[in-house]
Amino acid sequence: MTDPYRDPIRAAARDWAMRVADPAFADWEAFADWLEADPQHNVAYEAALAADAEIAAWFVAAPPRPILAQPTVRRPRRLIWGGGAVAAGLAVVLGWSALDAGSDPYAIETAPGQRRQIALSDGSRIDLNGGSRIVLDDDSPRLAALERGEALFTVRHDAADPFVVTAGPSRLVDVGTVFNVVRTDRSTRVTVSEGAVVYNPDSEAVRLDPGKALFADDAAANVRVSAVAPEAVGAWTARRLVYSGTAIEDVAADLARNLGVAIAVEGAGTAPFTGTIAIDGDPAAILDRTAPLLGLSAQRKGEGWVLTSRNRVRP
């Protein structure tokens, strides 16, 4: 019989398994690069973990190992990615009350201006926009929590096991769907291009079919439903932002998320915006040509930008 640890891949997997188990381990980027280099690396790594678990079972009566007493970072579990490096998505594990106590959630974050595409094990896909954070769990692949930012969900429908997205107090259940969700610290926006989504099925139970948009303010009792062009849903993935009667503050937040720069709006009374903004190119050039469309002027302020009414004199 061949010694499995004479196989360089298995030997490396065993080494990584031991290193990741160390509470002081911090070399996540190198670990992610190794996993991405060859599909067999993940297979071998999982086999090494299984072997560890089997050995640990022999010593079930032994005192617990120190790592179990105070873990601060958990390893990523079978992350399946597309369109980006695994290293950018590795994150510390956090509690998530919507999941079972035995689950193992992990967070994926993007910086402003950065994007990630996540392929889930059930065949669904999530496009994560800049400045966003989403929590997933391999043990609950049909559940996602968008904590902030924007994500486009392309969901494989399963009537017996619906895909559920939580965003703040909002709960969205798919009915075979492509839909976009934006979560801020005060509101949730949902737009649907295919299939349907049911918003808060246990309370408002608002069904959103293709071409429908919903805005929910956390502080308001009612939600607002409007029309949207289906082709506009998730248009940010094609470097376009499409609006119909959208508040300037929301447009500015979208621009900041996509361009990777801080954008503030000063002054009030600007009319909602309807139109399309191309976001492919230099942020400064984009803001210079976009501000007049919004009835505003764009000026640099520190490391970011401020959009101000052209009729307002700034001190």
UniProtKB/TrEMBL annotation:
Show the stretches that span the lipid bilayer.
Answer: 79-99
The UniProt keywords, alphabetically, are: Membrane, Transmembrane, Transmembrane helix
**Residues covered by the FecR protein domain:** 108-197
Q: Does the keyword Signal apply?
A: no
InterPro entries (alphabetical): FecR, Ferrdict_sens_TM
Name assigned to this protein? Transmembrane sensor
